[in-house]
Amino acid sequence: MTLIADPKAPRPPRPGPGRRTTRGNTELYGWVFMRASGVILVVLIFGHLFVNLVAGEGVKAIDFGFVAGKWASPFWQVWDLLMLWLAMIHGTNGVRTIVNDYAEKDTTRLVLKGLLYLAFVVVVVLGTLVIFTFDPCPSGSPADLLPSFCTA
Which domain of life is it from (predicted)? Predict the structure, then answer.
């Protein structure tokens, strides 16, 4: 007969030298952040979808020129930047929680969280660079490669 542990029973602390049995307020702040960022993300995402799909001509109108025109406004740059940062922080925090819950070995947990944080930094840095350095009409480009709205 196999006994299955009660899923509602508190887990014993992981063994190891100097390991604390409580995590302090960090987990509480993470929990509160997830709820608050989730609400803000709903507003940002539905605003993004409304402007891109409902207010315009639908998905067929989204092209290079649409994005170039949208990102010409600092308002939409900040909107998309907030959406990127909040979504990445929200998602990273969620995956971090899953890794903490399910990775049994300290080494495994360290490697997974290291890869997670590396992916977070790469996506946030590259996304931020794209949003703020996007230039649909780069100088010195051949005229046949520029969009129709650029003056050669």
Answer: Bacteria
Task: Mention every residue, 6+ apart, whose C-beta is less than 8 A from residue 3.
Answer: none
Residue positions counted in the chain: 152
Spatial CA neighbour of 68 closest among 126, 122, 138? 138
Ranges of H-type helices in the chain: 26-49, 64-70, 74-102, 106-133
For domain 34-135, the question of CATH label 2.60.40.10 is answered with no
* CA–CA dist 152, 147 (Å, integer): 10
Predicted local distance difference test score (pLDDT) of residue 61: 81
Q: Where are the domains of the chain?
A: 34-135
Express each pLDDT in 101-116 by its tens digit. 898 899 999 999 999 9
Instruction: Report the SS3 class of residue 3.
Output: coil
pTM here? Answer: 0.74
Rg (CA), the chain: 22
Place of tokens 């001509």: 57
**Residue 27, phi then psi, degrees to nearest 5:** -65, -35
